[in-house]
């Protein structure tokens, strides 16, 4: 049973991957290299002297992600892939909503077989998904969705009509 780390080539992700490999976990990394170069994967291998599976996939590519899940036994997902530059998020907000909330949603969807798993989000901006037998609190989920949409609508966006 492997642990899937999204954004595992990144700053926090790669350190986490080193710790997971050193602790003896089987590891799978997904990263689209939008904010890092592939050398960080070599560093993870050099530091730990251990190997792992790696996929260059954009999390918005649902088919690609589905293949990763169907070809591997994944027991847990640690989600680090996201966009995080504050200045940039102000100038291109919709891209940031998609690149951070959108990718998280796809990762969560893919990770949870809703009939038997319960999503357990940890602190922002990353999330840890664990299997649980608890039923989701639907009221709380609906409130959160409304809150997300409200924030989204309040985002000032310039639309050029020409
Ligand atoms: O859609 C996406 C978006 C991003 N990524 C990947 O996700 C990883 C995210 O890692 P970052 O290094 O960009 O972000 P971190 O949150 O890990 O680290 C950032 O925050 C840290 C503090 O929290 C430090 O400031 C650090 O320098 C800064 O990069 C990157 O490899 C990026 O390529 C994807 O795979 N898919």
UniProtKB/TrEMBL annotation:
Record keyword NAD present: yes
Gene Ontology cellular-component annotations: cytosol
The protein's enzyme class: isomerase
Known cofactor(s): NAD(+)
GO MF terms, alphabetically ordered: lyase activity; UDP-glucose 4-epimerase activity
Keyword hit for NADP: no
Entry-linked SUPFAM superfamilies: NAD(P)-binding Rossmann-fold domains (SSF51735)
GO-annotated biological processes: monosaccharide metabolic process
Substrates-to-products reaction catalysed: UDP-alpha-D-glucose = UDP-alpha-D-galactose
Record keywords, A-Z: Isomerase, Lyase, NAD
Domain of life: Bacteria
InterPro entries, alphabetized: NAD(P)-bd_dom, NAD(P)-bd_dom_sf
NAD(P)-binding domain location: 4-103
EC number: 5.1.3.2
Family, similarity comment: Belongs to the NAD(P)-dependent epimerase/dehydratase family.
Name of this chain's protein: UDP-glucose 4-epimerase
Species name: Neobacillus novalis
């Amino acid at each position: 049973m492997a642990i899937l780390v999204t954004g595992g080539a990144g700053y926090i992700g790669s350190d986490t991957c080193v710790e997971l490999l050193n602790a003896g976990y089987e590891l799978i990394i997904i990263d689209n290299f939008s904010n890092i170069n592939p050398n960080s994967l070599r560093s993870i291998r050099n530091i730990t002297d251990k190997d792992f599976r790696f996929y260059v996939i954009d999390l918005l590519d649902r088919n690609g992600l589905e293949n990763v899940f169907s070809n591997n036994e994944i027991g847990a997902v640690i989600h680090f892939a996201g966009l995080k530059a504050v200045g940039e998020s102000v100038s291109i907000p919709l891209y940031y909503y998609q690149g951070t909330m959108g990718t998280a949603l796809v990762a969560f969807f893919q990770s949870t077989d809703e009939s038997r798993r319960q999503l357990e989000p940890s602190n922002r901006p990353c999330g840890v998904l664990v299997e649980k037998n608890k039923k989701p609190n639907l009221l709380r989920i609906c409130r959160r969705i409304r809150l997300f949409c409200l924030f989204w609508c309040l985002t000032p966006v310039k639309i050029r009509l020409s």
